[in-house]
From TrEMBL:
The keyword Transmembrane helix applies. The keyword Transmembrane helix applies. Residues 8-118 form the AsmA domain. GO terms for biological process: regulation of protein targeting to membrane. Keywords: Coiled coil, Membrane, Transmembrane, Transmembrane helix. Residues 1189-1208 are annotated as: Disordered. InterPro entries: AsmA, AsmA-related. One of its GO terms (cellular component) is plasma membrane. This is AsmA-like C-terminal region. The lineage of its organism: Bacteria, Pseudomonadati, Pseudomonadota, Alphaproteobacteria, Hyphomicrobiales. Signal peptide: none annotated. Residues 1199-1208 have a biased composition (Gly residues). Residues 1119-1170 form a coiled coil.
Length: 1208
């Protein structure tokens, strides 16, 4: 029974409870809307309108919910609530007391305003009296608080407001804690308020923090409520530093503390303290600020402090591997704080430490319009009495600082200023040097730029433009245009530059570009003019797009280069042109000194100047190989060379290479000098010469080499191995071959200048060690049709050189030998018999001495063999050429000869001296054909001669000397002494015509030769004339006597010889030494002598002698006739006596006859008289030189009639 009672009671309870749950759902609670609006209006002090549905449930706890609530007028509500849900205490609710235990406001929106007068209004006036509704806690979901400043038209919205509100009453105290979103940032906030006193004042405290914990803002003070609220208290802003993993990177919070007085018109921060790092209490800033609110918002702030410094870097970091501190500082620059209002700020700090350097006496005055800062002046000081000034505009650009303005840096001691970024040297060129830099500075994004900059150094202005990238764009772009930089200015400028060799520069500026120019500067102790350097670096390489200088220590260049790798192993490629004038250019001397170039190499390289070389060095391929191409002009040669470097330029001396190139020139002598062979005329008649080069191998191990110099069909080539010895000498072993029109060039290469050699073609083994030693062995070759062999050596000791060797020739031509001694030019023919070309044995002293022994089986003249088995020494010294100890066979005899020529030099006149000895040499072996045909015999003799002149012709004019000779078996053709017997045997010489007699004598001379067993004589040479005087030779049947002059210049002959009978007795007395004197007159020249017989004297003498003989004969006849006349007279006397007797008888007859006879006698007497006048007695006849007429007149009537005597 009891159980049934319990069941009934339980069912009733259940029904009652079900009714309590279900019944309210069937009640129209909208009918109670007015009651609810009245209760809310009573609590809020403002009309409340519920426009949405209303629901109520009693159990399990009284809960009232309604939606779309409007507080205030419908048109301009002070607040709206999307939905309200309230839980009440059941017991209190049943007593008609509405104790709200939980209130949920969904999507509440509260609008607050500040009117144009700065008065605050909310449209809600919370009732402070006793109300039937009490609230202990309220939850706000997705709320919104909007504040509108009518003065500025701005609206501040805190959205997504979620939190719990606890309050004892609507007049306080109350507490709110929750989150809200402002400007897309989520914040957590707390707000506490004490009970509002009768004056409307309450103590409040607040706390605000972003959900990411970036900072906290707390405040505490007295809030005066009302339409003109005021706050007087303190605020603390604490900002957390960026998260840092290393413990050393942990920093304290930024703390800002200040007394604050705030109203709707102004906020005043008096005596604030700012600590950027609360762990570093010494770094603190103080100041004051005033913020004007309203339509004309503005602020005015001052900042002051002592020493303010940035926190130190991590002590464990390696600064050498990190960017420069300035770059890191720029990278870390925060965007400027830009208050959303205009204002101004003044900063005055004793020192600002920026880690790498400090700014002292910092003064900053700036204003802002809310979008940017205008810095009217910023002044700071650096070491070296340096003042930094800046002015311009500072903005925030996408979260990064931006600045545009003017900056100037003026220093009185650049040495102290430059010490900030580089370690000064012992002798600092910047000591006490003033300088300044000014220009327009732009900071934006990740770059700092200086444009229109003017760098003043030693009162000289230079143009500078600079762009410094940082953050994600670390690079440096520099443009500098220097004026004239002297030695001091150049050194000072170099001392100003940061150290670019360290890792810090590469880390700070992995990329960059530069454009540098200078009218003049001194770089590496060299004076450079019109200097330009343009390029960039990056990706591990430095690229010069243009690097040029009109003059850099005597060298000009314009190149484009790319440098990669490291300083220890740089990789260089590029192209350009390099010009150099002289070897003493300071830049070249410095380069040689730095490379420790041996003096011999310097001298060799100097010969190729001036030069202009165009080069192209390709980048290294995947195997590190490079190709170097050279072109242009070196000295007088056009250069074309390609070098394939398997190890690149850096491995050129240690890795395999291949070099192919040519040198071409239209001035062969000049190119020969350029190659280091002096004035050797290897190709004297060539108009163009080419030198081909080919080298293969590793320079340190030796190069297989082929060097060929060619000109037309002529060439000289070396093929073999080249090696650079430890003493920097180039050593070579190989084969040399060539074909030369004149081999004198080879002699000149050995230092034997002035020695002329004919055409040669051949080869030899060559070994040389620099210029110190050279050996030619196994020489084989030909000169025309003449072959030769031998060996030569050249050795140098100190400043002297010696050539020695031996050469065997198939034959030697006298002309070639003369050309070798006197030079080919000396053999140029003139108008006379002697060459008239200049003797040339060199216009300078030779650098070597030498002796070459020459042997040859034949010495020829004009291709005809003249001598045999010749040997001689061809020697020379600095100034003299000598053909010494010449010895050769000629016929059955021998000739020795020695001649020297002196001296090499600029003087045209040369002195030639020598000796000649003949031993048993036939005249026909050495005399010209004409003389050889006329003379015969074997000569033994000697000659010494000397002359000075510029040519052979000049030498002949002044030749001097002496000599003697002996000719055995001397003969003179067509000078037969038998002519005397022939003449003596002639009959009727008196009746012969002189011409006929001369013909008879001439024909008689041609019947044989004059012969003498020996002829000895001596001669002298003076003034170019050889004189042979008083020569007498006795031969078979005749003797010769006379003299001869030889004019050497013309080879002219002038002399006469008389042949007289010797040991000849003419019984007729016609021929004797006085009458038979045959005179031979010599004229013409030695090659073409003229032999003239002068027979007139002999014919005249013979005729005179024949006339004398005839006269003697006639005198004898006359004597006989007189004897006959005497005998006849005696006979007449006898007859007279006999005839007297008959005389008378015949007197008459005789008288007639007598008269006839007398007439006849007169006629005879006249004839006799005439005869006596014509006939002169021989004893009284004068000596005449003309021909005598020895014919006798006819004798008429001498013997006519007996006894008739002529009358005398």
């Amino acid at each position: 029974m009891l159980n049934r009672i319990y069941i009934i009671i339980g069912v009733l309870a259940i029904i009652a409870l079900a009714g309590a749950f279900i019944a309210p759902r069937f009640i129209q609670w909208g009918d109670y809307r007015d009651r609810m609006e009245a209760l809310a209006t009573e609590a809020l002090g403002e009309d409340v309108t519920i426009r949405g549905d209303i629901e109520f449930s009693l159990l399990p706890q009284p809960r009232l919910s309604f939606t779309d609530v409007v507080v205030g007028s419908i048109e301009a509500p002070a607040a709206t609530v999307g939905a309200v849900e309230a839980d009440f205490s059941l017991m209190e609710f049943l007593r008609d007391n509405y104790n709200v235990t939980r209130l949920v406001l969904a999507q509440p929106v509260i609008d607050l305003t500040i009117d144009e007068n700065g008065l605050f209004g909310s449209g809600i006036e919370v009732a402070t009296g006793k109300s039937a509704v009490s609230l202990a806690q309220a939850s706000i979901i997705d709320g919104t608080v909007r504040l509108e400043d009518v003065r500025t038209g701005e609206r501040f919205v805190a959205a997504n407001l979620d939190g719990d509100l606890r309050l004892a009453s609507f007049s306080g105290p109350f507490q709110f804690q929750g989150t809200a979103e402002f400007n897309a940032q989520r914040y957590s906030l707390r707000f506490n308020s004490a009970l509002v006193d009768v004056d409307g004042n309450t103590r409040i405290s607040s706390f605000l923090q972003p959900v990411d914990g970036a900072f906290t803002l707390s405040s505490e003070g007295i809030l005066s409520t009302g339409i003109a609220p005021k706050f007087d208290g303190a605020i603390v802003l604490r900002q957390a530093p960026p998260a840092a993993e290393p413990a050393a990177g942990i920093r304290g919070d930024l703390v800002f503390e200040s007394k604050v007085q705030a109203s709707t018109d102004r906020i005043v921060l008096s005596g604030y303290v700012l600590q950027p790092d609360e762990n570093r209490a010494s770094a603190r800033l103080t100041g004051a600020a005033s913020i004007q609110l309203g339509e004309r918002r503005s602020f005015d702030a001052v900042v002051s402090g002592g020493v303010f410094s940035l926190p130190p870097r991590d002590a464990s970091e390696d600064a050498t591997l990190l960017p420069f501190e300035l770059v890191r500082l720029l990278d870390e620059l925060p965007p400027p704080l830009l208050p959303p209002m205009p204002g101004r700020v003044g900063v005055d700090l004793a020192e600002v430490g920026l880690r790498g350097f400090s700014l002292r006496q910092v003064r900053l005055d700036a204003t802002t319009d809310g979008t940017s800062w205008e810095i009217s002046q910023a002044i700071a000081h650096l070491p070296g009495d340096t003042e930094v000034r800046a002015s311009g505009s500072l903005i925030s650009n996408e979260g990064l600082p931006g600045f545009t303005g003017q900056v100037s840096i003026s220093s009185q001691r650049l040495d102290a200023l430059a010490a900030l970024w580089r370690k000064p040297g012992d002798d600092n060129p910047l000591f006490n040097v003033p300088g300044s830099l000014e220009g327009k500075v732009m900071l934006g994004g990740s770059a700092l730029g200086l444009s229109g900059g003017v760098l003043t150094l030693e009162e000289t202005a230079h143009a500078v433009d600079l762009r410094l990238g940082f953050a994600d764009e670390r690079r440096l772009d520099v443009t500098v245009h220097f004026a004239d930089l002297g030695k001091a200015e150049s050194a000072a400028m170099a001392a100003l530059l940061p150290d670019t060799s360290g890792a810090g520069f590469a880390t700070s500026f992995p990329d960059g570009s530069f454009t540098v120019s200078a009218k003049s500067a001194r770089i590496a102790e060299q004076v450079a003019t019109t200097l330009v350097a343009e390029g960039q670096w990056g990706d591990g390489q430095l690229q010069f797009t243009r690097l040029s200088a009109q003059d850099f220590g005597g060298v000009g260049f314009e190149v484009a280069l790319t440098l990669q790798g490291t300083l220890a192993d740089p990789q260089v490629s590029g192209s350009g042109v390099i010009r150099a004038g002289t070897a003493d250019a300071p830049a070249l001397v410095a380069l040689h000194d730095r490379a420790d170039t041996p003096a011999s190499w310097r001298d060799a390289l100097a010969l190729s100047l001036p030069g202009e070389v165009i080069f192209d060095l390709t980048p290294a391929n995947t195997e590190g190989a490079q190709t170097l191409t050279l072109g242009g002009r070196l000295g007088v040669a056009d250069l074309d060379l390609t070098a394939q470097l398997s190890g690149g330029l850096n491995g050129a001396l240690t890795q395999a290479l291949r070099i192919n190139g040519t040198l071409e020139s239209r001035d062969p002598p000049a190119l020969t000098r350029q190659l280091g062979f002096g004035d050797a005329e290897v190709f004297p008649d060539a108009g163009e010469i080419m030198v081909a080069l080919n080298f293969v191998g590793v320079p340190g191990e030796g190069l297989k080499s082929q060097v060929t110099a060619s000109a037309g069909e002529e060439y000289l080539s070396f093929s073999g191995d080249l090696l650079v010895a430890g003493n920097a000498e180039i050593e070579g072993t190989g084969t040399i071959e060539g074909k030369l029109v004149e081999a004198a060039g080879l002699a000149q290469l050995a230092g034997a200048r002035g020695l002329s050699l004919p055409m040669a073609e051949g080869h030899a083994d060559l070994h040389f060690e620099g210029r110190r030693l050279a050996r030619l062995t196994g020489i084989e070759g030909r000169s025309g049709e003449t072959g030769f062999t031998g060996e030569l050596s050249l050795s140098r000791t100190g400043g002297s050189a010696m050539v020695a060797g031996a050469v065997a020739l198939d034959s030697v031509d006298v002309t070639a030998l003369a050309a070798a001694m006197f030079g080919p030019a000396a053999l140029i023919r003139g108008s006379g018999p002697w060459p008239d070309g200049p003797i040339d044995i060199g216009d300078t002293a030779r650098s070597t001495r030498g002796t070459v022994a020459v042997t040859t089986p034949a010495v020829t003249v004009g291709g005809a063999s003249m001598m045999r088995d010749a040997k001689f020494d061809l020697s020379w010294d600095e100034t003299r050429m000598r053909l010494a100890r010449f010895e050769a066979g000629i016929g059955t005899g021998k000739v020795t000869f020695d001649v020297s020529v002196c001296c090499s030099g600029p003087l045209a006149d040369k002195t030639v001296a020598g000796r000649l000895t003949l031993d048993g040499v036939g005249i026909d072996e050495i005399a010209p054909p004409a003389l050889a045909d006329a003379l015969g015999g074997v000569i033994d003799g000697g000659l010494r001669f000397e002359a000075t002149g510029a040519s052979f012709a000049a030498l002949a004019q002044v030749l001097a000397g002496e000599g003697n000779f002996t000719i055995a078996d001397f003969t003179v053709d067509k000078l037969d002494p038998g002519v005397f017997a022939t003449v003596a045997a002639l009959d009727g010489v008196l009746e012969m015509d002189a011409d006929a007699l001369g013909i008879i004598i001439g024909q008689g001379l041609e019947q044989g030769a004059f012969k003498a067993p020996e002829l000895a004589g001596a001669f002298t040479i003076a003034g170019g004339v050889a004189r042979l005087a008083n020569l007498i030779v006795e031969g078979d049947g005749a003797s010769l006597a006379g003299g001869l002059n030889l004019t050497v210049e013309t080879l002219g002959l002038d002399g006469s010889f008389a042949m007289t009978p010797l040991g000849f007795d003419d019984p007729n007395g016609l021929v004797d030494a006085n009458t038979a004197r045959i005179v031979t007159r010599l004229s013409g020249t030695v090659p073409a002598p003229v032999n003239a017989l002068d027979l007139d004297i002999m014919v005249a003498a013979l005729q005179v002698r024949a006339n004398e003989i005839e006269v003697d004969r006639l005198e004898a006849l006359r004597a006989e006739d007189a004897e006959r006349q005497r005998a006849a007279a005696e006979e007449r006397n006898r007859l007279i006596a006999e005839q007297r007797r008959i005389a008378a008888e015949e007197a008459a007859r005789l008288a007639e006859e007598e008269e006839a006879r007398r007439q006849e006698e007169l006629r005879v007497q006249e004839e006799q008289r005439l005869l006596e006048q014509q006939v002169v007695p021989p004893a009284e006849a004068p000596v005449t030189t003309g021909p005598l007429d020895l014919s006798l007149p006819p004798i008429n009537g001498q013997f006519q009639g007996g006894g008739i005597q002529p009358q005398f």
